[in-house]
Amino acid sequence: MKIAIASQGAEENAEINEQGARAPYFLIFNEKGELLEAMKNPFAVGGGGAGFSVAKAMADKGVDVFVAGSIGGNMTSALEERSVKYYEKSGTAKQVAGEIAGNQ
Question: Could you tell me the fold of the domain covering 3-103?
């Protein structure tokens, strides 16, 4: 299982970003809650369609669960189409990844 968390920074203790598709970084954790990768968001700035693009990028990386402070309607639809679960949470990325990893 891979857990992607929209974060404000590249370190595992970064706060979860309020906006899912426009987050500065995505942190990808494994099923044990260990950080695998910190990915700079190429869709953080720009025109529309960020939610769709981020959902596709996460699915292409094999992500099973996506977390952000808030996830817009277009992004939720795109995640659902790709069978990626999603949660709206706050706190640090490492803390929430650990919670999700323990609940799966």
Answer: Nucleotidyltransferase; domain 5 (3.30.420)
* CA atoms within 13 Å, Cβ hemisphere of 32: 3
13 and 94 Cβ atoms separated by less than 8 Å = yes
90 near 27, Cβ under 8 Å? no
Mean pLDDT of each 10-residue bin along the chain, 104 residues long: 97 96 97 96 88 96 97 95 97 96 72
Residue 23 to residues 16, 32, 102, 103, 104: CA-CA distances in angstroms?
Answer: 9, 23, 25, 25, 25
